[in-house]
Design a protein that fits this description.
single chain, 417 residues, TIM Barrel, 2 domains, eight-stranded mixed sheet, eight-stranded parallel sheet, 40% helix, binds N-(iminomethyl)-L-glutamic acid, binds fe (iii) ion
């Protein structure tokens, strides 16, 4: 796909150097065969096109489709590094119970929550799951997201977890959104193992993890380390096996209480430690030492009405490359909007607008063990968003509506307002 974006009101480009964003007014961006070949001021872009296409640049300029982006902002496509996008059933009945005063934990302890989703998911075929999930993937494009991590974790049997991961594979064949699969077999203790936790840990370590790794069904292994779910000791045992099988590590830690999950993430060299509402200083130190990326999910606190927020400002000031995600799931964060997460990060966690944008692009990529997506430069995949916004700050400042005007994936228009 070839394309010229001209008269861009503001081109906002996160740089490799942490927290740096280059903002250019009245800019251009040129795409050839789905890749960026030039970007920057009009003069710079013209020079770059001449370099890239020494014999055909005039032809390219005359014959390529042009999009006038005056008054609009162009950014890289956003990266959502933490979602539970395959779930098979929504849970608005639990939302209502929470509005009436029940807590998320109470609902979970009475067999609802994740265990409700597990019962539903087990009853669906892969085909039904694929059909249920596809419209949600379109919604990511609508909200400016072009790459998404997706976890299993609502199956909790060997076959149902495999079914979830195969669903993600099938979705990837059917949809242009980039999906990065994570195995989360340790999301809960399934109903049939409530009296035999070790039995499930055995199943995870002796059958599920080996099968997932051998069949290359996931890149990461995740766990919910939390009071009443997996202990730190169980987590260490499970994740050590996952590491030995070549899976990279992610963890849900310190979400509802402090149990030392961040310390374990550091000890195991996890790629990311996610949530962190109740992280302690020693957890922060452990993540710094191991280069673990903190992924903060402000949608969860908003949706569960939790006042306790992760110390984002402190983590940034201490040098951690904080990333942001939606945690999109039917229980604790029913949103797919990264722009909303940016607004919340600023209003609730004292991040700055540019930081919140860097956290949903470059740092989100880093939390997925990647350098790209999230950076647009010559040679990158042309994944970008055109926003109805005069500049980057306005995208973060405005909330509750959608400013995305167009989303492109590999140079192809995948959403238009
Ligand atoms: O990230 N913490 C555990 N998992 C999800 C919730 C999943 C659910 O309620 O279905 C989370 O908050
Ligand atoms: Fe989660």
């Amino acid at each position: 796909m070839d394309l010229i974006l001209s008269k861009i009101g503001e081109l906002a480009l996160p740089q490799n150097k942490i927290w740096e964003i280059k903002r250019t007014k009245n800019a251009s961006l040129f795409v050839k065969n789905g890749k960026v070949i030039a970007l920057g001021t009009n003069e710079q872009a013209l020079e770059q096109v001449k370099n890239a296409l020494p014999n055909s640049w005039e032809n390219f300029l005359t014959n390529t489709k042009k999009i006038d982006c005056s008054g609009k902002t162009v950014t890289p496509g956003l990266v959502d590094p933490h979602t539970h996008s395959v779930f098979g059933a929504t849970r608005q009945h639990e939302f209502k119970m929470r509005c009436e005063g029940k807590t998320y934990t109470e609902i979970a302890q009475n067999g609802g929550g994740i265990r409700y989703s597990v019962r539903k998911l087990r009853s669906l075929s892969e085909e039904e799951l694929v059909n249920f999930t596809l419209p949600f993937l379109d919604k990511f494009f609508e909200l400016g997201t072009t790459t998404v991590e997706v976890k299993s974790g609502y199956g909790l049997t060997l076959n149902d977890e495999i079914k979830m991961l195969k669903t993600i594979q099938t979705l990837q064949k059917l949809h242009k959104l980039t999906l990065i699969p994570t195995f989360l077999g340790a999301h809960e203790i399934p109903d049939e193992f409530r009296e035999n936790r070790e039995g499930y840990v055995d199943l995870l370590t002796k059958e599920m993890i080996p099968k997932v790794a051998d069949e290359k069904l996931a890149e990461f292994c995740d766990i919910f380390t939390e009071t009443g779910v997996y202990t730190v000791e169980e987590s260490e045992k499970i994740l050590t096996v996952a590491k030995n099988y070549g899976l990279k590590i992610k963890m849900h830690v310190e979400e509802l209480s402090h149990v030392g999950g961040a310390e374990l993430a550091g000890k195991l060299g996890a790629v990311s430690a996610d949530h962190l509402e109740f992280v302690s200083q020693s957890g922060i130190e452990a993540m710094k030492k191991s280069g673990t990326v903190p992924v903060l999910l402000p949608g969860t606190a908003l949706f569960l009405g939790i006042k306790h927020l992760p110390p984002a400002r402190k983590m940034i000031d201490e040098g951690l490359p904080v990333a942001l995600g939606t945690d999109f799931n039917p229980g604790s964060s029913m949103t797919q909007s990264l722009p909303l997460m940016m607004t919340l990060a600023c209003t609730q966690m004292k991040m700055l607008p540019e930081e919140s944008f860097y956290a949903t692009t470059v740092n989100a990529s880093k939390s997925l063990a990647r350098e790209k997506p999230g950076i647009l430069e010559i040679g990158s995949d042309a994944d970008f968003v055109v926003w109805d916004s005069p500049d980057l700050d306005f995208i973060v400042y405005y909330f509750g509506g959608n400013l995305v005007n167009k989303t492109f994936k590999n140079g192809e228009l995948v959403y238009e307002k």
